[in-house]
Amino acid sequence: MSTELPIRKIIHIDMDAFYASVAQLDDPSLRDKAIAVGGNEQRGVVTAASYEARKFGVKSAMSSVLAKRNCPHLIFVKPNFERYREISKRIREIFLEYTELVEPLSLDEAYLDVTENKKGNPSASLLAREIRKEIKEKTGLNASAGISINKFIAKVASDINKPNGQKTVGPEEVEEFLEVLDIRKFHGVGKVTAEKMYKLGIFTGKDLKQKSREYLIEKFGKNGTHYFNVVRGVHLSAVKPNRIRKSVGAERTFNENISSEIFMLERLENIAGEIEKRLGKNNIAGKTITLKIKYSDFTQQTRSKTINHYIANKDLILEIAKELLYQEKMRNSVRLLGISLSNLNTDKANKKPIEEKEIEVQLKFEF
Question: Right CATH number for 8-16+82-173 from 3.30.70.270, 3.20.20.70, 3.40.250.10, 1.10.260.40?
């Protein structure tokens, strides 16, 4: 039995080096300079890097010390999340001029479904160009875009002509595009799965496509059907304007390593207070509290506890975080602590799974 794939025109907009670009926008002396947002020369972690810094191998989640070693002239700047949120809101207002179907992924990227749009323009590629131009005019920042038949392909495409470019993968190009794609780029293929696929001789989409549905189910369980479909351009996830939040959290990297549990509790109290504000702002509560600990040797540990009722109160969050902190002895001095709350009252855990069907892709519409 076969059914027709829903016809969609999806744009993925991704701001170029957003945090770093905002810093360069606000401080002209930083323009065309190698800068890193977050951390400092002695310690911390890079949150984002300008393209000038990326040329030297500086990237997000890299230790500041290593970043400085790779790029001796690197300039560190402090993050300004209020400013990021302000600009992100302005960008989202631009998106809504084109369609109500906007799914934000973070402050600097979003999916737009422009199959039917407010401009009455049948070309998703031209719409993406207009949106990027308007973002530049109203914020001074560059954005890149990917355009295709589903969210997965659009997101991959947005990386291809970065920075300040766009890539359209039209219906007739989907098959070829996916066949040459590195298996690590496929939606749902993480590091562990990629390693397993390598051992099975699966390195590209073409390799994956040669495997039968039965073979993939045998090797990867229920995910096998997903891999079978996605390499054929079948990815049914719609653009969801009210994207369900999975967790709320905050973390802090310290200027000096902490070995005293008293000091750790002080930091955790501040973090719990920040989470309480974020939960209250969005009217969210959760049942699972996770404590994140990063030690001075950069090893990381998480400890979680699920309770039987929803909480959003700072004191209750701190009480459980404290319990998790004392759960076992510290391995080393600590450089980062974080708390997150998940299993939220926004979750739809009982949502019925989509029935898997054989799908015939119909790819005949203007891009």
Answer: 3.30.70.270
269 catalytic? Reply is no
Domain limits, the chain = 8-16+82-173, 18-80, 180-237, 247-344
Mean pLDDT by 10 residues, the chain (367 residues): 61 97 96 91 87 95 92 94 93 96 93 94 96 97 96 94 95 92 90 93 95 94 92 87 80 86 90 91 90 90 93 93 89 91 72 36 44
Tell which CATH classification among 3.10.520.10, 3.90.440.10, 1.20.210.10, 1.10.150.20 matches the domain 180-237. 1.10.150.20
Q: Tell me the one-letter amino acid at 19.
A: Y
207 belongs to an annotated ligand binding site: no
Is 108 flagged in the annotation as binding?
Answer: yes
Q: Which of 109, 172, 269, 358 is catalytic?
A: 109
